[in-house]
Specification:
CATH architecture of the largest domain: Alpha-Beta Complex
CATH superfamily of the largest domain: Medium-chain alcohol dehydrogenases, catalytic domain
Order of helices and strands: EEEHEEEHEHEHHEHEHEHEHEHEHEHHEE
Bound molecules: nicotinamide-adenine-dinucleotide, zinc ion
Number of strands: 17
Structural class: alpha/beta
Number of helices: 13
Largest sheet: 8 strands, mixed
CATH topology of the largest domain: Quinone Oxidoreductase, Chain A, domain 1
Number of domains: 2
Length: about 350
């Protein structure tokens, strides 16, 4: 089969590789019908994720059809159309029993990381019973694939960890796909207003389309805007969806006493926690790797037309144009890419 294989920093390509085979009786083999590229894949290509071994097929988000299932797989069977979650879960360990699947002792984020992933014609999914979700017929591949990672991440690690409540003022710093998913799902909880902060005008425009009420360029004093909008109090919830020290520290300055800072970004460098200012403010700061416990709920909401998934897909490609898709995604500032989706109906590349 063909797959997108990582050979070390700066070296990767769409190439011929061995077909996956069942390894454990709990595995399933899935034919990939739609797949996307994540910002994390770009980090891997740069060498920022050293545990990814050369020879690994990348990708952790896909939709496809089960073509083979091990004898201990009971919840799906060949022919079923499924969403492959970015998190694989054994369903038995202590973390899985507490729905903290991201921390699963044998699974967690393994696809396209520790084992071969989804940017391929076929993929082996471990612990298939808990790692794939049957898809409602009314949800398209293109919409569903966004529920493999970015929607559960924005919702669980941003909105739910941030304890968003009706009437809140919410600030989302970083309007990439994950921040946009946080905005779209925060909207469902009837906040008073959502303020989006980013450095690029195109991302702020996208934020407005998915439900931000106000937008601010990071370089134009968003802290003052939030203070003005809240009578000087600050935001009830600040969601960090960038992953750099500056934006985390900005979130801790923008939140009101008693509020929540929900960190979503993946950080590579230490950030300063200004306890000299924060100690008396009764602030809750949360961190988290997505668990995908909300995926069944999000799938029902997508089926009911409640999620603006289509607005996040800016480009589509056939599967075999993976290298071009990576290029368009990596040059988002020039191309305007949010999410690129490959596969599905064999459509020509183009903005949708
Ligand atoms: P992205 O890189 O596409 O988006 C980041 C956005 O932040 C961009 O729009 C960029 O313009 C903006 N930005 C950059 N510097 C900024 C600044 N100083 N102020 C304001 N905005 C700034 O990434 P994404 O795919 O949307 O993911 C967002 C973060 O979430 C990443 O760090 C990613 O690794 C992380 N993530 C976390 C989890 C989890 O489980 N916690 C899962 C998936 C992704
Ligand atoms: Zn991801």
């Amino acid at each position: 089969m063909k797959a997108y294989v990582f050979h070390g920093p700066g070296q990767s390509g769409w190439e011929e590789t061995a077909d996956p085979v069942l390894g454990e009786p709990t595995d399933a083999i899935v034919r990939v019908d739609a797949v996307t590229v994540c910002g994390t894949d770009l980090h891997i290509l740069k060498g920022d994720v050293p545990e990814v071994r050369p020879g690994t097929v990348l990708g952790h988000e896909a939709v496809g059809e089960i073509v083979e299932a091990g004898r201990d797989v009971h919840s799906v069977r060949p022919g079923d159309r499924v969403l492959i979650s970015c998190i694989s879960a054994c369903g038995r360990c202590r973390y899985c029993r507490e729905a903290m699947y991201g921390q699963c002792r044998g699974g967690g984020w393994v696809l396209g990381h520790l084992i071969d992933g989804t940017q391929a014609e076929y993929v082996r999914v471990p612990y298939a019973d808990f790692s794939v979700h049957q898809l409602p017929a009314t949800v398209t591949d293109q919409d569903a694939v966004l529920l493999a990672d970015i929607f559960p991440t924005g919702y669980e690690v941003g909105v739910l960890n941030g304890h968003v409540r009706p009437g809140d003022t919410i600030v989302v710093v970083g309007a990439g796909p994950v921040g946009l998913a946080a905005i779209a799902t925060a909207r469902l909880l009837s906040p008073e207003r959502i303020v989006a902060v980013d450095v690029t005008a195109a991302r702020l425009e996208a934020a407005r389309k998915v439900g931000a009420d106000a937008v601010a360029a990071a370089q134009e004093n968003p802290e003052q805007l939030v203070a003005d909008l809240t009578g000087g109090l600050g935001a009830d919830v600040a969601i960090e969806a960038v992953g750099v020290p500056d934006t985390f520290e900005m979130c801790t300055r923008m939140v009101r006493p008693g509020g929540h800072v929900a960190n979503v970004g993946v950080h590579g460098k230490p950030a300063t926690l200004h306890l000299e200012d924060l100690w008396s403010k009764n602030i809750t700061i949360t961190t988290g790797l997505v668990d995908t416990h909300s995926t069944p709920t999000l799938l029902r909401m997508a089926a009911a037309g409640r999620l603006p998934t289509a607005q996040l897909v800016t480009h589509t490609f056939p599967l075999d144009r993976m290298e071009e898709a990576y290029d368009v995604f990596a040059r988002a500032a020039d191309t305007g890419a949010l999410k690129v989706v490959l596969g599905g109906p064999r459509r020509d590349v183009g903005a949708v």
